[in-house]
Amino acid sequence: MEKNICQVYEAEIQALEEEIKVLTEKYEEIQQEYTSFSDEEILKSIKLFQREILGENKGYKSPSNLIFQLENLETDLLFLMKFTGFQFTSHSKKTLERTGNRTVQKNRLSGKCHSLSFQLEFQLTKMQENVSSVITDLKIMMESEEGSDVSKFVSRAEECRSLLKFFRSISSYAEWHEHRRNTFLHFK
């Protein structure tokens, strides 16, 4: 009986040690991401933030003006969502590598286009000297019943590593998918 209790406790201790190890790795990862900024970059960001708060950059004069501009931006966003059919639900960005003139970031973006859900994962390599960005890895996940139809243009977009091709294709496909679905519902 005591052996069973000891084994249960030992298993619990091992599980907790593993959890501590995972959390420590995540903490070190976050610390590395934050410490990869130089003091100069941090000071520039603080000054820029202070200027924006004080209104030197954008011409903000009062909180009511900020609220008005925020409402305008929300209206514009709603218009764009209705116009394009895209609704982004989440975005995350993680810096994988930062050198003097090169930054590699991993991005995750999920959303819907009309009724089709999608999730993108891509690595973006930014070069400081050229002021250009290149997608080095693109993975597209779609939730759809018509896997073969969607998979053709998804695989082409992944091969070309072209977000523009993906967004154009899914926009057109999702719009016609909605029309087909509504037509079939009408005849049922």
Helix content: 55-70%
Radius of gyration: 24 Å
Strand order of the largest sheet: 1-2-3-4
Shape: extended
Give the low-confidence spans.
none
Q: What is the number of independent domains?
A: 2
| Annotation field: number of helices | 5
Main sheet characteristics: 4 strands, antiparallel
Order of helices and strands: HHHEEEEHH
Task: State the secondary-structure class.
Answer: alpha+beta
Q: Give the DSSP E fraction (strand runs of 2 or more residues).
A: 25-35%
Integer average pLDDT: 79
Query: First CA to last CA: what distance?
Result: 64 Å
Q: How many individual β-strands?
A: 4
Protein name: Centromere protein P
Organism: Acanthisitta chloris (rifleman)
Keywords: Coiled coil
Coiled coil: 6-40
Structure commentary:
There is one protein chain. This protein has 188 residues and is of the alpha+beta class. It folds into two domains: 1-35; 84-187, no CATH class. It has five helices and four strands; from the N terminus they run H-H-H-E-E-E-E-H-H. The chain has helices at residues 2-35, 39-54, 63-84, 147-160, 163-187; strands spanning 86-98, 102-113, 116-127, 132-143. Strands 1-2-3-4 form a four-stranded antiparallel sheet. Strand 3 and strand 4 (132-143) form a beta hairpin. Helix 4 (147-160) runs antiparallel to helix 5 (163-187). It starts with a helix and ends with a helix. 7% of the residues are buried. The model has no long low-confidence stretch (mean pLDDT 79).
